[in-house]
Structure formats: structure tokens, C-alpha cells
Design goal:
The protein has twelve helices and no strands. By secondary structure, the protein is mostly helical.
């Protein structure tokens, strides 16, 4: 007896069920550590092994300690991280857009080799240049300073992001530039008034990644910064779980949960520009 082929409706149902199953598994993998961190931050004790995901006697005592205890430098670390993140997001995105615009719209000697250099630099992590960066910052007197850390972040993000934004600029028709030049517009006016508004989606992505990086990174601040008053959040929170403060896992969890607030705020803010940029580019003929 011949086997009946599976109907198209049944096949589509199975595919949709498989997709939802994969999404459900990924959701559990993502949300479970977050729930554990939040639940741990509400445990009144500081012992990791005595903490539970749903504490019986939950309390905000660790959040209160972070902001009110004189021994806590959390507000200073938060201010330092925001200063670094905002500087990197604004200056880094502007420099990346300038670089991408030059490589996309101009033809000059060394342009091809410059693009090859961008591709080559993306193959090597920043960690490989740590010794050289340490010596450089020490030579120019920017070691153990937020300015030195900002410069490293901005310089390290340019190759990858510039290549990304350059590809987006290449999709914008050059007839826009030529029409603007016929109307008497210069290079800066074309860049700021025509191309940048059309490139809002990709610039929003670059700005978001640039803003997030200082909140997430630990290795660079660990190498560059020495004074506790200059620490970023990742480096400062590490002191809660190292050998000297090995019992403060719940305070670490509380501090880590609060990191999500500025990142979520910036994401929601840039999402508006992302959607508006996409709709504007789709409606203009």
C-alpha cells in the first residue's frame, strides 16, 4: 500500500510548530539567567548558595546599599560608564559616518588598500593589541584615565563599523549627490542634510552598539584603569565577587540588573529613529 504524501496544510503546521518550539527554547535560555539574577538581587542574604530564584523574604536592601552606603562607589562607576558610553556613541558614530562617507563617495589613492585594511583589522581581536595600547597610553600620560579608555573604544570600533556603514552608503543612489551639487550644495551639506537622514537605521545600530560596549566590557578597563574612582561598572562590580569580596554575589546581581536600564532606554530612543528612517526611505521615490 502506497504511503500517502503529507498534505501541505499539515506540513505548514509542523513547520510553524517547529519554529515556535525553537523560539520557546531560545526564550527560556535567555530569560532564565535574567530571572535568576533578579531573584538573587532580592535575596536579603549575601550568600550565593542560600539564594533562590523566588526568595521567601524578598528585599531591596542590596539596591539600597549600592546607592546609600558610604563604602559603595556604585554611583561613581555608573557615572563613569555613562560618560564613556555617551562619548563613544556620539564621537564614534560621527567619525565612523565620516570615514564611511569618504570611502563610499570618493575615489582616492589608497582607497582599495584602506578597505582591505578594514577587513584585515576585523580578523584580529583588540586583545591582541593590549600590550601596545598599554605602552601607548602610558607614554602619552592617559593611563588610568577615562579619556584614554574612550580613545581606545572609538579607535577600535572604527574599522568594523565604517565598513558596515560604507556598505549602507553604497546602496544610496549617487544621483542624490549630483542633484544637490547642481543646486549648489557642498560636501558637508550633502553629507549632513541628505545622506545622514537616509542612513538613520544603520547609524542607530552603530550608536547602540557603541553605547552598549563600555557597559559590557571588562578586559579593557581592567588593563587601562587602576584607581577605584575611575572604574567602570563591569570592573567595579567584579570586586564584589573576587577573592576579597567573595560573598557579595547578591549585591553583584543587583548592580548588574541596573545596567539594563540605560541600555533599554537608549534602545527605545533609537528605535523611534530607526523606524522613522526606514519608513522615510521606503516612501521617497
Amino acid at each position: 500500500m502506497a504511503k500517502q504524501p503529507m498534505s501541505r496544510k499539515t506540513k505548514n503546521t509542523l513547520e510553524i510548530a517547529l519554529m515556535y518550539a525553537i523560539i520557546g527554547v531560545m526564550f527560556v535560555i535567555i530569560i532564565y539567567p535574567l530571572l535568576w539574577a533578579f531573584g538573587m538581587s532580592l535575596n536579603p542574604s549575601s550568600n550565593l548558595y542560600g539564594a533562590s530564584i523566588i526568595p521567601e523574604n524578598w528585599s531591596f536592601v542590596h539596591y539600597e546599599w549600592l546607592f546609600t552606603n558610604p563604602r559603595s562607589n556604585y554611583l561613581t562607576w555608573y557615572k563613569n560608564t555613562l560618560m564613556v558610553s555617551i562619548s563613544v556613541a556620539i564621537v564614534g558614530t560621527l567619525l565612523v559616518s565620516f570615514t564611511a562617507y569618504a570611502f563610499s563617495r570618493y575615489r582616492f589613492r589608497g582607497r582599495t588598500y584602506g578597505l582591505y585594511a578594514f577587513l584585515l583589522l576585523q580578523m584580529f581581536p583588540v586583545l591582541m593589541a593590549m600590550v601596545a595600547l598599554y605602552i601607548l597610553l602610558n607614554t602619552i600620560g592617559l593611563l588610568d584615565s577615562l579619556l584614554g579608555l574612550i580613545i581606545i573604544y572609538i579607535g577600535g570600533n572604527i574599522p568594523m563599523n565604517a565598513f558596515l556603514v560604507k556598505g549602507y552608503f553604497d546602496t544610496l543612489p549617487k544621483e542624490l549627490d549630483e542633484s544637490a551639487k547642481m543646486d549648489g550644495a557642498g560636501h558637508f551639506r550633502i553629507f549632513f542634510q541628505i545622506l545622514l537622514p537616509l542612513a538613520k537605521p544603520i547609524l542607530a545600530v552603530v550608536a547602540l552598539f557603541n553605547f552598549m560596549n563600555p557597559f559590557m566590557d571588562f578586559i579593557l578597563p581592567r588593563i587601562v584603569l587602576r584607581s577605584p574612582e575611575n572604574f567602570t561598572l563591569a570592573l567595579g562590580l567584579f570586586n564584589f565577587v573576587n577573592d576579597q569580596f567573595s560573598n557579595n554575589f547578591t549585591r553583584f546581581a543587583a548592580g548588574a540588573i541596573l545596567i539594563a536600564l540605560p541600555i533599554a532606554t537608549v534602545y527605545l530612543f533609537l528605535q523611534k529613529y530607526l523606524i522613522s528612517g526606514l519608513s522615510a526611505g521606503a516612501t521617497k521615490g
